[in-house]
Amino acid sequence: MKKVKLGKFSFTDPIWKNVSDTGKDFISLLLTKDPAKRPTAQQALGHSWIQQANQAQKEGMGVNLAVDALSNLSNFNAKSKLKQATYAFIASQLLSKNEKE
């Protein structure tokens, strides 16, 4: 959690072995600590990983990939360190100082 808050995280956990470098880049961009440097939703949709997935779907190759992705998301372990860190980061961005205290 400290590493995510500092903006210094890695993808060394075995769960990331099947995620492409482009996918990891996309996630890294979304977890950018500085809001001014973090991509907007529109910019995120333009990322090459999203564009590749969109093209694969248009070509009919994305169905199994999408099913696998949804399955992975639904099976995402609540104790996952990354998930906890992501929730903490999101909460820290949404809560006021008084609410955090």
What's the number of domains?
A: 1
Question: What is the mean pLDDT?
Answer: 78
Helix content: 55-70%
**Roughly how many Å is the radius of gyration?**
15 Å
Structural class assignment = mainly alpha
Can you offer a commentary on this structure?
This protein is an all-alpha fold and about 100 residues long. It has one domain. It has 7 helices and no strands. The model has no long low-confidence stretch (mean pLDDT about 80).
What's this model, at a glance?
The chain has 101 residues and is mainly α.
Write the layout of secondary structure elements.
Elements: H1 2-6, H2 21-30, H3 41-45, H4 48-58, H5 62-74, H6 81-94, H7 97-100
Output the keywords.
7 helices, mainly alpha, 101 residues, 0% strand
